[in-house]
Amino acid sequence: MDYDVLIIGSGPAGQHAAWQAARLGKRAAIIERKPKIGGAGLQTGTIPSKAMREVAYLLSRSGGMRQALAPDGRSRHGLLADAVRRKEGVIAQQESVILQRLLKHGVALIPGEASLIDAHTVQVSDAAGKVRQLSAEVIILASGSRPRRPAHIPFDKKTVLDSTSILNLRHLPDSLLVVGGGVIACEFVSIFAALGVQVSVVDSHAQLLEYLSEDVVGVLADSFLAMGVTFQMRERVASIQQVDGGTLTVLESGKQIRADAVLYAQGREPNSEKLRVTNAGVHAQDGWIAVDRNFQTNVPHIYAVGDLIGRPALASTGMEQGRAAVLHAFGGGEQVMADNLPMAVYTIPEISYVGKTEKEVQQDGIPYVIGRAYFKDSARGQIIGDAQGLLKLLVDTRNEKLLGVHIVGEQASELVHIGQLVMNLQGTVRDLIRNVFNYPTLAECYKLAALDCTHQLDQLGKA
Fold first, then answer.
1. Structural domains of the chain ordered from first start
2. pLDDT per residue over 148-164, tens digit each?
């Protein structure tokens, strides 16, 4: 074999698989078809959008956008340029860090398009047309995903955009229609609304982020409304046309919406068609690769990780999946991941949660209480002026363990890890009360919400 492990894809899942293999002393190589490493996580998704979001967030904290705009709008385009520069600077720096780390660990980087010849052999075709074959004891598929682009949507990368092409805009549109109400859609609504664009949202569901709690999403929706965002909920797009340098979107209800640009953000597709996994006997359904709890496909020495296997399709979980797959392949035994994985939506304000939603708790028939703490009731929340933030705990009345933690507000993506640790260490809500938090901090909201829970639990005990 040429290598102990060949990893197809250099995104977060592939990187961490390679680092783990190198730490085990294995000969590891990453095959990457793009000219730059990092995958969607670094180049076209996670990092770029969050870097742009940070500029928009700082602007939203500075007292609003419209009052500061020049009449000719030039300052608006300057703000977009600032956001793009920040994005590109962060990408360049992270790319250098990742590259140095891979080379330091002795991981080989092989440019080219990979496809499976058989269960142990990969063909690599590079940009110059050269073709070679490489073999490995273990193969890890980590080729990621891309925005879904239905054939009837006239994408042109100028006025009709997906979540990748919108990152390359150099001029702010005056108006933007966002089709979709999921994570990616909401994050871009935040960015462009904060940059002064008139944003409209079309979504088929009754609420944004329809799988989350109404009160949590309600805080986000209120923030969007305050930024001038308009909503067309329970609506579906019939057609999108390019008209007079802009767009005309017709909804199934007959409504028509004109906007300078449209962002179509409804789902992603797996990058699996060129892998030719059937040559190795690997099962796939609609391009998604099926795996077991150890990330093994039906071919035991071929693993799949990251977006390629579907939900949760997060960079953080992909990293852990890559590591766990390598440990299982070379260490033997099951490498079980933590049960409770955090999820964050980098909107303005942020949303983050871990564990079950209230709907899931109700469907499972678990008796529970809810404890809430509002940022405005904490000293730190008052200091930073976050009057809308909310931390919510779902607690099992039978054993007082946390079922879920839901946070909306500043630092939500950081705060959620406290609850995650308590859950994964089998702690109870009273452990949060016994803990001492720095004062003033937003983390103190955990104690406030826990006290709310225990008051209810004590009342139930007396009943």
1. 3-147+269-331 (3.50.50.60), 160-266 (3.50.50.60), 349-462 (3.30.390.30)
2. 999 999 999 999 999 99
